[in-house]
Amino acid sequence: MITSFVRRRGVAATACLLLAGVAVASPARAWLGGPAPPQPEPVTLAPLHPTGSPYQSVVLGGALGLPRVMPDGVALRGLSDLAWSESEGLLYAVSDFGWLFRLQPVFENDRLTNVRLLDSHPLTDAAGRPLTGRWRDAEGLTLAPGPDGAPALFVSFERSPRITRIDRQGRWQADVPLPAPFADPRRYDTPNAALEALAWHPRRGLLSAPEFPPPGFMPAGHTPLFDLSGRRHPYLLHSGPRCALVALNAWAGDEFLSLERCYDGGRLEIALRRFDLPETDGFTIRPETLALFRLQDGWLLDNFEGMTRIGSRGLLLVSDDNGSARQRSLLVYLRRRD
């Protein structure tokens, strides 16, 4: 969650978007807010790049604007990460406000055409009480083997940094011990910049990373990607404006895809990148960029923070609207070409 996205820098962001609106008025106005659709509805990410067209190393597979309320009345806001369950055919999403949502994307001819909004469940503590305050800020989500070997949901949190195993109704099952110093909120850039990304690798287990480099972490411009054994790798962030690592997904072998959101002074870029996970502790990760989407190039963008793999080459991305009427919750489908 990036609270400065429109709040502290609202004037600069609005000015930049209005300038973008001179060339592509419709996408810019959509990003600036307006009424959310009552049901999921298709949106165009860029007039020059329609659904089905290739762009850099991906193919655009469709995008949807999401309503602000689930059918059960729970606010659909602050979406921060996704996890696709192939066996269930369900998409799970977590929010900054402490909710687990179940969704079902609809595809036609390998294009995202709709999403069914199924139900909502509050994330709870060990006593079964819904999480509140700094304890509810869920940021990362992944499926990984549970104690019985079956796929289980794991959530990473900011503000009160931790990784928790939950059931399919959002109920706490167990906390995962974190290696030092990642359990200490004072070791991060800010309390709101802790465990943003979460993924599972068959050999290395759960891996996580803060979005911004913690103070004193060297070299400069790198954020630590770590596993639960304590092995860590400096991850070189993209060279865009104040880039943050916001999502991770494991692919075949040691390949990972990462998502970065870069935002500063009204400039917004979303970078989809790939890298191979090193085995050697401390070895630097230098990702390559598969696709770069920039607001200033006419793309309809928002605060994209979540990503999950779907199928053999597909990706779903989701944006976090920060609970703001000036932003949108967008669900985007991409297919890899590389």
CATH class: Mainly Beta
In total, the number of domains comes to 1
- pLDDT < 50 stretches: 3-33
Shape: globular
Quick recap of the structure?
The protein is mostly beta strands and 338 residues long. It has helices at 10-23, 25-31, and strands spanning 41-42, 54-55, 58-65, 79-85, 90-95, 99-108, 111-122, 138-145, 151-157, 162-166, 172-176, 195-201, 205-210, 222-227, 232-236, 243-250, 255-264, 267-276, 288-294, 304-310, 314-319, 330-336. The protein is globular.
Describe the structure.
This protein is mainly β and about 350 residues long. The protein has a single domain (about 10-335), classed as Neuraminidase (6 Propeller). Helices cover about 5% and strands about 45% of the residues. It has 2 helices and 22 strands. Strands 1, 2, 3, 20, 21 and 22 form a 6-stranded antiparallel beta sheet that branches. A 4-stranded antiparallel beta sheet has the order 4-5-6-7, with no helix packed on it. A 4-stranded antiparallel beta sheet has the order 8-9-10-11, with no helix packed on it. Strand 2 and strand 3 (about 60-65) form a beta hairpin. Helix 1 runs antiparallel to helix 2. The longest helix is centred in the N-terminal third of the chain and has 14 residues, at about 10-25. The chain is globular. The two termini are about 30 Å apart.
